[in-house]
From TrEMBL:
Enzyme class, spelled out: ligase
Originating organism: Streptomyces microflavus (Streptomyces lipmanii)
Catalytic activity: tRNA(Arg) + L-arginine + ATP = L-arginyl-tRNA(Arg) + AMP + diphosphate
Protein name: arginine--tRNA ligase
Key words, A-Z: ATP-binding, Ligase, Nucleotide-binding
Gene name for this UniProt entry: nrtL
């Protein structure tokens, strides 16, 4: 069971409680579940009972008890506890099955893993100035929102800079809108698209403009071109390239990733957790119009990938023969590479198979 699955399970329990008249409160549009913080119990926690206590005119603990009865019987739930003033803490049944579900989802959905329909009812329009960072940010925001089902229109105050096409940027119209529109206005890049492209190239320009939060200045120095670990863009793209190289190496050795197992070694845990959280990160980035959240997620995935790769090599060494452990490790490495490629694509950045 993935975090998204658990969220839907809790929401279903709320709906059942309301339908059965055990709870008199409006059903929320969504339920947020989070990984349990250090020192807490269970795998995930949820504050929905506290959210519903007021409208239901019941103590949060009573709301939590009503929901616990209905969630505990659902497949994939091992244990449901009530903690503090009314938090629900969930321990998932067979964690390895949950991990396997994530790997299967990544394999089935490919670079579209994490895309969904949560915003399918939204029709949005944004406006921005004739400035390269605003244009690139608006383009990335559009991609994120569309990945979650929204329909989006982007307009610019003036006709776009012809150089924007080299960054993949398009606008739907230009001019002063007849009514005020939500604006995309990050801190200016302080340079034109042409000046940045000549010095850095399209991928580094897009990363440099999108990686900082919109209210922060965008560092656009030559360190974006450094081919080393100190450059986060290089590290993310190198992690993807390394994952692709592992797949090629395994094929040369005559084996492929396992479709029926997930790695059990401790170093795999952070990477598996990040992959499970990826759909939630994309949805949050879309809701908050914040491409920088995706960039930070990719950095975290790349870091966890290398930690896992170095501790649990997916390829056998020397005369060692491929084992079930190698196949399951390769499945995780393959999934990480897919998530990295999908995230870079949403940011409009290429993911080379070789670096």
């Amino acid at each position: 069971m993935t975090p998204a699955d658990l969220s839907r399970t809790v929401l279903h329990a709320v709906r059942r409680a309301v339908d059965e008249n055990a709870l008199r409160a409006p059903v929320p549009a969504r339920v947020r579940v989070e990984r349990t913080r250090p020192g807490g119990s269970g795998d995930y926690a949820c504050a929905v009972a506290l959210q519903l206590a007021g409208p239901a005119e019941l103590p949060a603990l009573e709301v939590a008890r009503i929901l616990r009865e209905r969630v505990a019987a659902e497949p994939g739930i091992g244990r449901v506890e009530i903690t503090g003033p009314g938090f629900l803490s969930f321990t998932l049944d067979a964690p390895s099955d949950s991990d396997l579900a994530v790997l299967h989802a990544v394999r089935e959905q490919g670079i579209a893993y994490g895309h969904g329909g949560a915003l399918r009812d939204e029709i949005l329009q944004f406006h921005h100035a004739r400035e390269v960072r605003a244009a690139v940010t608006a383009h990335a925001v559009r991609r994120l929102l569309v990945s979650q089902g929204a329909r989006v229109r982007i307009t610019c105050q003036e006709a776009g800079d012809p150089e924007w096409s080299r960054l993949g940027v398009t606008i739907d119209a230009h001019g002063t809108p007849p009514v005020p529109l939500p604006r995309i206005r990050p801190v200016s890049a302080g340079a034109t698209a042409g000046e940045l492209l000549e010095r850095l190239g399209a991928d580094a320009v897009r990363w440099g403009l999108l990686r900082p939060a919109g209210h922060d200045r965008a560092p656009l120095g030559d360190d974006l071109l450094v081919q080393g670990e100190a450059n986060p863009l290089f590290r993310v793209r190198y992690a993807h390239a390394r994952a692709r190289a592992l797949i090629r190496g395994a094929a040369a050795l005559g084996f492929t990733s396992a479709a029926d197992a997930a790695p059990h070694e401790a170093p795999a845990r952070p990477l598996l957790d990040l992959l499970a959280d990826h759909p939630g990160v994309l949805l949050a980035a879309a809701r908050h119009r914040a491409p920088d959240r995706v960039a930070r997620q990719l950095e975290a995935v790349a870091h966890a990938f290398f930690d896992f790769h170095d501790s649990c090599p997916p390829l056998p060494s020397g005369d060692e023969k491929p084992s079930a452990a190698h196949r399951s490790r390769l499945a995780l490495a393959e999934a990480a590479g897919t998530v990295l490629a999908g995230g870079l694509s949403l940011l409009g950045i290429s993911a080379p198979a070789h670096l």
